[in-house]
Amino acid sequence: MSATMTAKVPATIITGFLGAGKTTLVRHLLAHAGGRRIAIIVNEFGALGIDRETLKSCGIEGCAEEDIVELANGCLCCTVADDFIPTMTALLDRAVPPEHIVIETSGLALPKPLLKAFTWPGIGTRVTVDGVIAVVDGPAVLAGRFADDPAAVAAQRAADPSVDHDNPLAEVYEDQLRAADLVVVNKQDLLTEVELTRVRAEIEAAVPRGVKLVAAREGRLDPLVVLGIGAAAEDDLAARPSHHDAEDGAHEHDDFESFTVSVAPVASADALVGRLRAVAAAHDILRIKGFVPVMGRSMRLAVQGVGTRFGHHFDRVWGPGEGHDGAVVVIGRTGMDRAAIIAAIAG
């Protein structure tokens, strides 16, 4: 069969703000791939490849390290020419190319510039955007974060006036919803039925077209729901409006910064999480994530925090030569007191 007659490889773009559960969803897809060859492109924001490490350590059969590619040199929507296009080309040129490509963007990425890249020569004839999946943190939306309706923000966020409707974070959130073919309201288990209904209504009011919404707990969705949508989203750009359309995709990330904090072995996982929670509250940190050694344990502790909500578990045994060096990435708005945060986390 000639190259022009070869079917395009489907690609799924997974967007969502920091901590919404994108990596958890991707991990679940890998675990239930049913033998399908899936390549993963992970776009990190921060110095450590936490999300790639989480996927590499999943222990899933067929989850080969070479099939998980990390792009850590900047926001994917800003570096499509330098990073994304060569990576896609390398995947497609493999002797045995992937049957499906899943792209997990950073929480800061706008989907529209990435969608446009699928129309570029050399890519547009070989890959199609099967669907754009926006993963939403249900409890965060309920609390009024990045809501589309200012009245709802005022009603639901009375206790937290720090998030303004015009904040650039809100624009990122809205752009992700507007580009989506499927919105996943994650952390369903933390919402009542009444609260979930309220979140769904708010999201439906924010999207300009008919978009399917599904609720999930820990990203547990059948791959049949997420993969195989057949949207060909790159041919449907006009129906996916962006706040940044007039800027040709240009946008700034000066509102955010990230840095890495080394963490010595701790005596108690619970005590560490308590310390991180206090630091996040005191400094209005958006996200803390990383791996930390615990005294007397051969397995490393994986820590994930969104605001003051934290989860942790022992994910795998420390590998040879890793040295049990702990580190967490701190992500927040520009101007954070780095010295104070580092001192507080280091204990």
Question: What are the salient characteristics of this protein?
Answer:
347 residues; alpha/beta; seven-stranded parallel β-sheet; five-stranded antiparallel β-sheet; 11 helices; 24% strand; disordered N terminus
Secondary-structure element string: EHEHEHEHEHHHEHEHEHEEEEH
Radius of gyration over C-alpha positions, nearest whole angstrom: 20 Å
Figure out the total of helices. 11
Weakly predicted, low-confidence segments = 1-5, 46-52, 54-63, 73-79, 147-167
Percent helix range = 25-40%
What integer is the average pLDDT?
76
Strand content: 15-25%
Order of strands, main sheet, comes to 3-2-4-1-5-6-7
Main sheet attributes: strand count, strand direction, barrel closure: 7 strands, parallel
Count of strand segments = 12
Strand pairing plus helix content: what structural class? alpha/beta
Terminus-to-terminus distance:
62 Å
Oligomer: single chain
Categorize the overall geometry: globular
Structural commentary:
The protein is of the alpha/beta class. The protein is 30% helix and 24% strand.
Topology:
Blueprint: E1 9-15, H1 22-31, E2 38-43, H2 50-56, E3 68-71, H3 80-92, E4 100-104, H4 111-117, E5 127-137, H5 138-142, H6 150-156, H7 168-179, E6 182-186, H8 193-206, E7 212-215, H9 223-226, E8 256-263, H10 269-283, E9 287-293, E10 299-306, E11 309-317, E12 326-333, H11 338-346
Parallel strand pairs: 1-4, 1-5, 2-3, 2-4, 5-6, 6-7
Antiparallel strand pairs: 8-12, 9-10, 9-12, 10-11
